[in-house]
Every structure is written in C-alpha cells, then in structure tokens.
Amino acid sequence: MKVFAPVNVGQVALKNRLVMSPMSTNMAKDGFITDEMIAFYVERAKGGAGLIFAEDAVVETPRGNHSLKFVAIDDDRYIPMLKRLTSAVHNCGAKIAVQLTHGGRRAGRVSKQTGCMEVTHGIIPVAPSPIAHPVTGQVVPKELSVEEIGELVRKFGAAAQRVVEAGFDVIGLHCAHMYLLGEFLSPWANQRIDEYGKTVEGRMRVVEEIIKEIYGRVDEKVPIICRMNGMDPEGEIRWQRFNTLLVVGRSRSCCHTCLGWIWRSNQRSKIHSVRHADADARQLYCPFS
Ligand SMILES: Cc1cc2nc3c(=O)[nH]c(=O)nc-3n(C[C@H](O)[C@H](O)[C@H](O)COP(=O)(O)O)c2cc1C
C-alpha cells in the first residue's frame, strides 16, 4: 500500500494519497465561508489528509442553490473568506480543492413547512429537460435554451477563476448526485434532442465546454477533478463517460466516482461493488501517478 507515499495530481504535489471527500457542512452563512467552517477544515487538515475537498460551491445563486446553507462562488465578494480557508488549510500542510456546482432541478424543492421554493428564493429551477426530480415535492424545471447553457458555461469559468484567485490547488466539478451537470450526463434526466443530448457525446458536451472554458481562463497546471455517479438511477454503469472526460482533460484532469444518486435503497450494494471491487477500472480512471 502506498497510502502514505507522496503523489502528484497533475502538477500538484500531495504529501499522501488520503483525500477527504467533499461534504456540505451546512455551516455557510449567506453564501460566505464562516469561521466555524474554517475551524472544521483545519481539524481535518491536521488529521493528515493530503487533499481536503471543501464542499460544493454554487456558481449561480439563488437559482442553482442546492441547500439553504450553500457556499457561493458567483461573486468576487466571497473571495476573501475563501482565501482565509485556503491559507488556514495550507498552514497545516494539506492541499485544498473546492467543487463547483449548480443545483439544477434539485434546487426546486417545495418546503413542507412553508409550501415555498425556499432554496431558490422562489425562482423556478433549470435543467436540461423539463422533468421533475423523482422525489416528492420537486417542481418541474425550466428547460435551458442553448443560449442559457452558454451563459452557465461562462459562469462555471468565472467561478473557476475565483477558485484559483482564492488559493485553491485543485478545481472540483460536481457532475454527480443528479445536480445540473449530472442531469446533463444522464439519459434519464436529459431527453434533449439537440446537440446537448441524444448521444453520450451530446450529453457530455456541456461538461466538455466547461472544462475548455475553465482552461481558457486559468492556468492549465491547475487540475480539474470531476466527480461523477458510479451508477445512474436507472442502474446502468457508464464507464465510457470517464474515457470521454479524460480525453477532454488530456491527462490534466481526473475523475472520481461516488455512490451516485439513488432512490431505491436496494441498489446501494451494487453501487458499492462498482466503487470498491473494480481495481482495473480504478487504476484506469483515477490516474494518480
Ligand atoms: C453530509 C454530507 C454531505 C455531502 N456533500 C457532498 C458534496 O458537497 N459533494 C459531493 O460530491 N459529495 C457529497 N457527499 C457525499 C460524500 O462525499 C461521500 O461520497 C458519501 O458520504 C459516501 O461515502 P463513501 O464515498 O466513503 O462511500 C456528502 C455526504 C454527506 C454525508
């Protein structure tokens, strides 16, 4: 086992191979990182992880919020607190990443208490297709036009610039859990008949464009790590997407998988077998050298 041996992700040197998964802490306030969050991540960095994945940060608020206590990154005013987070974690010898995200149709849940769409402040959420998230209480989202997709791609790019300015070492891209980018990748949520749907390449297009947009704005030495579902809700494994993403990133990027987004709990064991049993696939698709 080389868990404690140094490793490079692109040109970013990690002191070991322990990576803390991104996990929303619900400690943000009005989109800002808080002192409580900084203390939380500093403790994790002191614990010895080589790379700390800070949670997901929203590139378009409030329409893309994923929760009520989201971290925002759609404006420069968030940078000073993000900088405090990165330097505090760096002082403990760890590297730090943040995950860019957009809630997509998952942002549109109606509160049982108030009957309102609190997460988006009442704004109808957007998605590749007007298909509601399959959990009760989710509204039918508005289908994004091609022009709106272009605007979102630019928002991801602008957010990535802030990530780098704030001192993060790695840019994360949240393409999992059936948030907006995961919805685009899914043949179940994405039923578009234009260039952003229909085929694997079509469903990949928006992620591809975002990666290109990011590398048009930030140094290509900054790695992008995409997180994708190991399995889609319909239960099919789609390794071909990883291939495509790796080609898009031309070895500057890597992917990591996660549980996926599921609504039938009996699929859980199958998904774990994808993550933990397929050693060849892990070697191929998590190309830490
Ligand atoms: C409270 C909580 C918040 C999470 N937030 C995120 C997140 O912001 N981004 C993400 O990609 N995954 C998120 N996850 C998923 C975790 O990163 C992780 O994949 C999940 O807990 C499964 O653990 P495992 O990968 O060790 O099986 C979250 C999980 C939990 C429990």
Strand content: 15-25%
Determine the fraction of residues in helical runs and give it as a percent range: 25-40%
Tally the structural domains: 1
The unique ligands bound to this protein are: flavin mononucleotide
CATH architecture: Alpha-Beta Barrel
Which residue ranges are poorly predicted, with pLDDT under 50 across at least 5 consecutive positions? Answer: 259-289
**Radius of gyration from the alpha-carbon trace, in angstroms:** 18 Å
Shape designation? globular
Biggest sheet character: 7 strands, parallel
Q: Briefly, what is this?
A:
With 289 residues, the chain is of the alpha/beta class.
Question: What does this molecule look like?
Answer:
The chain is α/β, with parallel strands linked by helices and 289 residues long. It has a single domain, classed as Alpha-Beta Barrel (TIM Barrel). It contains eight helices and eleven strands. It has helices at 35-46, 79-90, 146-165, 180-185, 200-217, 239-249, 268-277, 279-285, and strands at residues 7-9, 12-14, 19-20, 51-58, 71-72, 95-101, 126-127, 142-143, 170-175, 224-229, 253-258. The strands form three sheets. Strands 3, 4, 5, 6, 9, 10 and 11 form a seven-stranded parallel sheet that branches. The radius of gyration is 18 Å and the shape is globular. It binds flavin mononucleotide.
